[in-house]
């Protein structure tokens, strides 16, 4: 799966001077937020990939336990109830988890598309900032200032703080880990768990409902005035330019609370990413963890465990809930898992032994089927199987073998005699 990666132009040797009038100003806090958003988007693909691989490793671990149980149960003999229950239960859970993994992959693909769209907007934002930070003497190539409380000045005029922070931000690449000195290291930005809209890190928007002013943007550079537009939204809607005020002080990076309404591509990327993370970490993991639940009171409420008990004939098909009568069987299963999680004795390779098991098991099953075909069956002329057995029981008891569908029943004299002879 290919994931969009933000690759930003590296600014090397860009000079910033207090003597040069700023064409644009952005608060350092919001620059950091914008960089954080860029880093999160750039790393989203890798983060999702790692989550999916982690989930798949859990799937593989449970499949190994299932195979070990069957191998140790023997290839040429009927498995005991503990092994059969383990196989049935794991099969149900693994099929369900595999489907969930497929669904998670689809959500990850959706997130990748959404992230790609948002990333395009962020690239645009950085492209704008890059143009505004290039040194030069023309109006379209002036230096940008980073404004914070300490350098804003009494006249509220942005003061230059140098290019170090901005330069680091523009050199940020989501494709590889940033240096330890980089305050916007994407490895740190994408922690193991992300919740809510935190991936936006109140990003590029000040905090709460307050936008971040971008002052002194010469909007003619974007053709806004010539086109007769009152506003112009850039960078996936994160930057909004306005002609209001002589220095365009109403141009801003939008408020965090306005992202959903005014920057839908960014919001879609955030929600799609969160949905994908939840799809691969929440329900699938919970389902697999039920396979090792040690509490009987908790385990017996799992519908899949009830179905597994039915599948192996441990409870009637009409059973609606497990009772404590099945607790001993389940406890034996949990205890056996401890052994099944260990490597095979003698350094045997699981994959090799599994193929041997399948071959031997297949041969054994064929032999059982052939033996069953050679056994005489009850006549089909009687209306009930027991009548057929009873009808011939007096003289040919050996020709009528008891099966699930044919039993010697002492309902008449012939059946009684046949039953006695078989004893």
Which sequence of strands runs across the widest sheet?
A: 3-6-5-4
User: How far apart lie the N and C ends?
Assistant: 68 Å
| Low-pLDDT residue spans | 1-25, 133-187, 189-210, 379-386, 392-399, 401-405, 417-423
Query: What is the molecular shape?
Result: elongated
Number of helices: 13
SS elements, strand count:
6
What is the strand content? Answer: under 5%
Helix and strand run: EHHEHHEEEEHHHHHHHHH
Overall radius of gyration = 35 Å
Mean pLDDT: 66
How is the biggest beta sheet arranged? 4 strands, antiparallel
Helix content bin: 40-55%
Structural summary, described in words:
The chain is 50% helix and 4% strand. The chain has 423 residues and is mostly helical. The protein has helices spanning 28-73, 81-133, 164-171, 186-189, 259-262, 264-281, 283-289, 296-299, 303-311, 327-340, 350-374, 385-392, 413-422; strands spanning 25-27, 145-147, 212-213, 231-234, 239-242, 252-253. The two termini are 68 Å apart. It has a domain at 25-284. Strands 3-6-5-4 form a four-stranded antiparallel beta sheet. Strands 1-2 form a two-stranded parallel ribbon. It holds the Pfam family Trypan_glycop. Its main location: membrane. It is found in: Cell membrane.
Helix-strand layout with pairing:
Layout: E1 25-27, H1 28-73, H2 81-133, E2 145-147, H3 164-171, H4 186-189, E3 212-213, E4 231-234, E5 239-242, E6 252-253, H5 259-262, H6 264-281, H7 283-289, H8 296-299, H9 303-311, H10 327-340, H11 350-374, H12 385-392, H13 413-422
Parallel strand pairs: 1-2
Antiparallel strand pairs: 3-6, 4-5, 5-6
